[in-house]
Write a structure and sequence with these properties.
heterodimer; A: mainly alpha; Helix Hairpins; elongated; B: two-stranded antiparallel sheet; 28 helices; transmembrane helix (chain B); NU5C-like (chain B); NADH-quinone oxidoreductase subunit L (chain B)
């Protein structure tokens, strides 16, 4: 198989993931898009490993080994990410990224049930900047 | 032990007692009383031993130089002549009495350990001043007394009066101490030494070039410490401290230091006619003004405070007449009877629950509640009024005799004008002194109205101390006036016939006139009820006194004044009474001259700082703040925006890297 096919496929996958990370509003979908990007990288790693090992006398297949690491790390990452999303959802009643703007400069209150702590932090921030 | 060793131990023992008291006061409160009383008592015994060994003979001099200073040397020096030996005995005696009395007076006070330690430190500083033969070492004791008076006057720091009074005492005496320090430096530069003996040698040989300037500078410090006009205003307010502290400050230590200092350096002052005239005028104004003010005070302790100022005026008057023997003689007798007056006043305030004479004059049988204070205070007041044969008579007559001696031109070391000023003022003050002593006695012990409150017996130590001090008040003058000339310069201290008759005569007139005025007004007094009495009569004396001081202003509108129509002083002084009660508005003058300009200056500086300097600072911060506000807008809180910016940046960098790599 020519190297171009997997390369183009992984580029497409990466772009899809990138779009999802930048544009999706649901945190779960953002996490899924991150997975897409990771897997695009994995695909590249495997493809280039195979292509390089054709020319070499003997090889350690380090690209494929690295892929295994990436998969393991991705599994851990998605576990933590989903746990955070779950906690945020329990707290705020939403996992919409556009509405989780607590770190904004002079941010408005995110929802009806976050009123009290939000005004508290706003007051603290006002004191700190004064 | 040699006499020098004993003399070194005299100031050292109370100092060690004070250090130990301050260190152990909190951890071992049981030691506080022995640590307060025993070192002072030992110092008293040693001072007596030193006096006995010195015996009025040649002055004992000892000096050691710790380290070379490069210019005028500073030495740890002792100079004990008859003056020093006797004054040290007085200081030791009064300090011991005060310490013993305090164990009763402040028996429930939680701050007693630090109080007693500070009293010990105060005593040690005064003994250092008395024995020191080096002016710099003397200055150390002089300043330690200043700071100790600040702490002790402010002992009841919960009350605003005490806080204000302690600050005032410190600042006013410091106002005098700065010229004093400059004067000491000028003196040392002229004389080439800080040693008193060498300074006096230089004065005798005419080696001091600017005696008038130096004497006037030193006089400012003396006026501050000895509460002479115009720096006397701190002393009546210092009554906000506990009574034993008043006794200590007024009888033997603080105020005596100034007079004693001039007595030591009298030849220097005599070298300048102008300084002697200034001294005489200062003494005359102080004497008469304070006696008038004393006649109008309502607080029993303020009467005594003004009387202290007046008696110190007698001492400076004697110095202005060039007779330091008479001045120190009066210092000794006054120390004894004034300590007694204050300590007795403390007992009376405790028993009556008030410090107001107006309130006491409406209590029947107060004298039966405190018989010891009654009898001893009568003795002390007779001594104060200079009635023979009490001790005050002999010392005051020696002062008047010295003034008369100068006025009639029998000496050349003091100007005749000074003698006349002191003599006339002294006789007038003798009249007024007898009047206010009589008024104090009548209002306190001859009150009419409700029965005085019964708080039971006073503590034994307090009454015992009164009787101990009554002995010198009664007999010191008569016994000592023949012996003292051997200790002093040899001048005759015996009363002369003219001044004795005149002085005693005017004193009797003053007493009788006051009695007549009291008989006249006392009918009015019964109809006007008046009086504020302490809320906790069962508390210890210090608590009662603190409450009495704190309640005087709310009850009568002024710390010094009570609207009492039955006061004989009001009848005697007439329209002057209102002005005399507030010390002839001197505080108001100072407030207008110094306090308000300083406050105006402070508010100007505050304006410059707040409005001018701060405006520049804020202006400099404006541009960065605007930039910061612009940058802060990028922080939207939306993570996706950040990632987009990150991506854009990466792309830009990548493109740039590629362009650089290809060399485009």
């Amino acid at each position: 198989m020519h190297l171009a096919y997997p390369a183009v496929l992984s580029a497409l996958l990466f772009c899809t993931g990138l779009y999802g990370v930048l544009a999706r509003r649901n945190a779960i979908l953002v996490l899924m898009s991150v997975e897409l990007m990771l897997n695009a990288v994995n695909l590249n790693l495997v493809a280039f490993d195979v292509w390089l090992s054709k020319a070499a006398e003997e090889t350690l297949h380090s690209g494929q080994a690295l892929t295994l690491f990436t998969i393991a790390i991705a599994a851990a990452e998605i576990g933590i990410g989903l746990a955070i999303v779950l906690a945020v959802h329990r707290n705020r009643g939403t996992s919409d990224i556009d509405r989780l703007r607590d770190t904004a400069e002079g941010h408005e209150t995110g929802g009806p049930d976050t009123d009290a702590p939000a005004t508290g932090t706003a007051a603290e921030k006002a004191e700190a900047t004064a | 032990m040699t006499t020098t060793t004993l003399a070194v131990l005299v100031p050292l023992l109370p100092f060690l007692g004070a250090a130990a008291g301050l260190l152990l006061g909190r951890t071992a409160p049981g030691f506080a009383r022995p640590l307060a009383v025993l070192p002072t008592l030992a110092a008293f015994v040693l001072a007596t031993l030193v006096a006995a060994r010195q015996g009025g003979g040649r002055a004992i001099d000892a000096a050691t130089e710790l380290t070379p200073t490069g210019s005028v040397p500073i030495e740890l020096a002792l100079h004990i002549d008859g003056f020093a030996a006797l004054v040290a005995v007085l200081v030791g005696c009064v300090a011991t009495c005060v310490q013993i009395y305090s164990t009763g007076y402040l028996r429930d006070d939680p701050r007693y350990p630090s109080y007693a330690a500070l009293v010990s430190l105060f005593t040690s500083a005064m003994l250092l001043v008395v024995y020191s033969g080096d002016l710099m070492v003397l200055l150390v004791g002089w300043e330690i007394m200043g700071i100790c008076s600040y702490f002790l006057v402010g002992h009841y720091w919960e009350t605003p009066e005490a806080r204000a009074a302690s600050l005032k005492a410190f600042l006013v005496t410091k106002l005098g101490d700065i010229p004093f320090l400059i004067g000491l430096f000028a003196l040392a530069t002229d004389a080439g030494s800080f040693r008193i003996t060498k300074v006096l040698g230089a004065v005798a040989s005419g080696g001091v070039d600017h005696p008038t300037l130096i004497a006037l500078l030193l006089l400012a410090g003396v006026a501050g410490k000895s509460a002479q006009f115009p720096l006397h205003t701190w002393l009546p307010d210092a009554m906000a401290g506990p009574t034993p502290v008043s006794a200590l400050i007024h009888a033997a230590t603080m105020v005596a230091a100034g007079v004693y200092f001039i007595a030591r350096l009298l030849p220097l002052f005599e070298a300048s006619q102008a300084a002697m005239i200034v001294l005489a005028v200062m003494a005359a104004v102080t004497m008469i003004g304070s006696a008038l003010a004393a006649l109008a005070q309502d607080d029993i302790k303020r009467v005594l405070a003004y009387s202290t100022i007046g008696q110190l005026g007698y001492m400076t008057g004697a110095l202005a007449a060039g007779d330091r023997g008479a001045a120190v003689f009066h210092l000794l007798t006054h120390g004894a009877f004034k300590a007694l007056l204050f300590l007795a006043a403390g007992v009376i305030i405790h028993a009556a629950g008030t410090n107001s004479l107006a309130a006491m004059s409406r209590m029947r049988n107060l004298r039966d509640r405190v018989p010891d204070a009654y009898w001893t205070m009568t003795v002390a007041l007779l001594a104060l009024a200079a009635i023979p044969p009490f001790s005050g008579f002999f010392s005051k007559e020696s002062v008047l005799g010295a003034a008369e001696h100068v006025a009639t031109g029998h000496t050349e070391h003091a100007p005749g004008a000074a003698g006349w000023t002191v003599l006339v003022a002294g006789l007038l003050t003798a009249l007024l002194t007898a009047a206010y002593a009589m008024r104090l006695w009548l209002l306190t012990f001859r009150g009419r109205g409700a029965e005085a409150p019964d708080h039971g017996r006073q503590p034994l130590v307090m009454n015992a101390v009164l009787w101990v001090l009554a002995i010198p008040s009664l007999a010191l003058g008569g016994l000592a006036f023949r012996l003292l000339p051997d200790w002093f310069d040899g001048g005759d201290l015996a009363p002369t016939l003219t001044t004795s008759v005149l002085g005693t005569g005017v004193a009797l007139v003053g007493g009788i006139v006051t009695y007549a005025a009291w008989r006249h007004t006392t009918a009015v007094g019964a109809r006007v009820p008046l009086g504020a009495v302490a809320a906790h009569p069962e508390g210890d004396a210090a608590l009662v006194e603190a409450e009495a001081i704190a309640s005087h202003e709310p009850a009568y509108g002024n710390v010094a004044y009570a609207p009492d129509p039955s006061d004989p002083g009001r009848l005697l002084l007439g329209p002057l009474h209102r002005h005399a009660a507030v010390g002839f508005h001197l505080d108001a003058v100072y407030s207008a001259l110094f306090v308000r300009p300083v406050q105006a200056g402070a508010s100007l500086v505050r304006f410059l700082d707040r409005e001018v300097v701060d405006t520049y600072v804020r202006g400099a911060g404006t541009l960065p703040r605007w930039l910061g506000a612009a940058v802060r807008r990028a922080q939207t809180g939306n993570v996706q925006t950040y990632v987009s910016a990150l991506l854009a940046g990466t792309v830009v960098l990548a493109v740039a890297a590629v362009l650089v790599a290809t060399g485009a």
